[in-house]
Amino acid sequence: MTSLGFGYGNYVVPTGSKFFIWVTCHNKLITNVHRMHKQLPNNPFCSRCSLNIEDSLHDFRNCAFARQVWDVFDAGTLVSNFYCLDFFHWLHFNMTASHVVVNNKAWSLVLLCTIWAMWKARNDMAFRGVKASHYQILHNANYANTQLAFPLPAPSVVKVLARTLGASSQE
């Protein structure tokens, strides 16, 4: 465990999550589209559905597989504009939706843990050939959510993540 480290306090998160938060907020995940731009041998299509180009928005929201995960939360009803925004605005809007609570957890934390579990499952499939069901992803996201330990209330965490997202919009 390590502090979040963005200069916003001592929020304790698993070490890998700290890096993942930063990379995700800055849209720097190495998706198939990014791999193609770096001229790595790969095709740009989604490794799950093979129908669309795989970028962060597709991986975490638009892929039919991702929609199965979000449908369990009824995210389209729970959070307005859930399926309407570009990646940065989608992430920012959801990370700052402090009024939304799921199973006594802030939506921003549920979202973060869920996209973390989706990304890990995507990489397991792409690089190791191990497929996970959307229920396994939800189980892993719930486990990750229980591992987060915050010394301050969740609304403070939302402010930290909003600041991180705000910093990425200035790049």
Walk me through what this model shows.
With 171 residues, this protein is mainly α. The chain has helices at residues 15-25, 32-37, 56-62, 64-73, 75-78, 87-95, 107-128, 134-147, 154-169, and strands at residues 2-3, 12-13, 101-102, 105-106. It has one domain (2-28, 54-169). The chain has 9 helices and 4 strands, in the order ββααααααββααα.
Write the topology of this structure.
Blueprint: E1 2-3, E2 12-13, H1 15-25, H2 32-37, H3 56-62, H4 64-73, H5 75-78, H6 87-95, E3 101-102, E4 105-106, H7 107-128, H8 134-147, H9 154-169
What is the 3D shape?
Answer: globular
Number of domains: 1
| Rg value | 15 Å
Structural class: mainly alpha
Concise synopsis of the structure shown:
It comes from Cephalotus follicularis (Albany pitcher plant). Helix content is 58%, strand content 5%. By secondary structure, the chain is mainly alpha-helical.
Question: Which tags fit this structure?
Answer:
single chain; 171 residues; mainly alpha; two-stranded antiparallel ribbon; two-stranded antiparallel sheet; 9 helices; 4 strands; 5% strand; globular; disordered N terminus; RVT-Znf
